[in-house]
Design a protein that fits this description.
4 helices, about 110 residues
Length: about 110
């Protein structure tokens, strides 16, 4: 066998291995993540607060919500807020209460 044939054979073997791994990865990627119930409830409260706080304002609720989520991503060093753990939810609750107190909707427009 010459060197080219050996390399082709090695490539074929590696290709089979990669295809086997891809078959094992695909189901894992499709499996839904189980988010902590505490986080799901808090996430709903955050959304509702932001919607209420931005009524009549020129900014959308998603802008205020994004501001809070950005703080969480920084504080907990996570890429996405859904990466929060059940254990972190109590701290998130404290931060949300502070956030609500500093971002209460006002009846007067400046």
């Amino acid at each position: 066998m010459n060197e080219i044939e050996e390399l082709r054979k090695e490539i074929a073997t590696l290709t089979e291995k990669v295809e086997g791994l891809e078959g094992r990865i695909a189901p894992l990627e499709k499996a839904p993540r189980k988010l902590p119930q505490e986080w799901l409830e808090l996430k709903k409260e955050i959304k509702e607060f932001c919607q209420e706080a931005t009524k009549g304002k020129r900014y959308r609720a998603s802008y205020l919500q994004d501001m809070f989520y950005s703080q969480l991503r920084f504080i907990f060093d996570i890429r996405h807020v859904d990466d929060l753990t059940k254990e972190q939810c109590s701290r998130v609750r404290e931060l949300f209460e502070q956030f609500k107190n500093t971002n209460k909707p006002s009846s007067t427009v400046i």
